[in-house]
Amino acid sequence: MTDEHAPSETRQRGLKTMSEVYGFDLPNLKGDPFYEVTVDHLFADIWNRPGLTMRDRRLLLLGVIAAQGNAEIAEIQVGAALRNGELDADQLREIAVFLAHYIGWPSATKLDGAIRKTLAKDQKK
């Protein structure tokens, strides 16, 4: 007999992957359509497709976030990359230098600032 309140296999896989991506546990919110699609599709399915490692996906995501100039989300992803051991401080700094040539200095400056801020927080721990 199954527990009707237990998360589905897809939801469990999505929540597990979200926790791996972000480096901390996230709640199982019910009744929020955007959250449900995020967990059940993006994290359960897309982040678990074959062909790319978690690190590969993180690098791609950092490039997209940097191109959008979203420093707040970059801080979350930089912190997760550090916590998960996917990227180290030197690699993160090099990403900002590399991307500056493709996405422009203003957007890369935001990424570099997010990296510096996250590294400073990490050193205080």
Automatic annotation (TrEMBL):
SUPFAM superfamilies named in the record: AhpD-like (SSF69118)
InterPro entries membership: 4CMD/NDH-1_regulator (IPR052512), AhpD-like (IPR029032), CMD-like (IPR003779)
GO molecular function terms attached to this record: peroxiredoxin activity
Residues covered by the Carboxymuconolactone decarboxylase-like domain: 34-111
Domain of life per record: Bacteria
Record-given protein name: Carboxymuconolactone decarboxylase family protein
Source species of the chain: Nocardia terrae
